[in-house]
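Appendix B, example 12.
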Amino acid sequence: MKENTRLSEHFTLREFIVSGIAIRHGIVNNPTEADIRRMRLLCERVLEPLRRRFGVLRITSGFCCTELNKKVGRDGNSPHLTGEAADIHISDPEVAWKMVTFLQVQGIEFDQCLLEELVKENVRWLHISYREGENRQQIKHLRLKRRKLGS
């Protein structure tokens, strides 16, 4: 599958699979057809409505193969492994909460919306996941001391 493959109107496969850490460590981050199908569902059902309401979304992490997932310090149950999650850059926590509220008010299904912050670095992202038929509508705010990002 080519990187410029469209997952939905505004999202491409490239946004989900290109990773500086993977490039730096020579990790091939190729999803399966099933992973791509799940990425499409995430885009169509959750990310596109957010894009239409809030404008351009910058995905900082999408699909991660097992090797890349370990390198960035995630556990073996991460929905990034199956194409069911994306992390979106958030400049302001207020925007994240507006996004979460929008999803709730519009009745848009999601599995998790986690506002994750590296407090000392003033960096934040919104982890959004979607699982076909098994969504928990879980919302959390996680303040992290640090995150392993592959050395």
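The first strand starts at residue 59 and ends at 61. Helices lie at 13-17, 20-25, 33-54, 66-71, 93-105.
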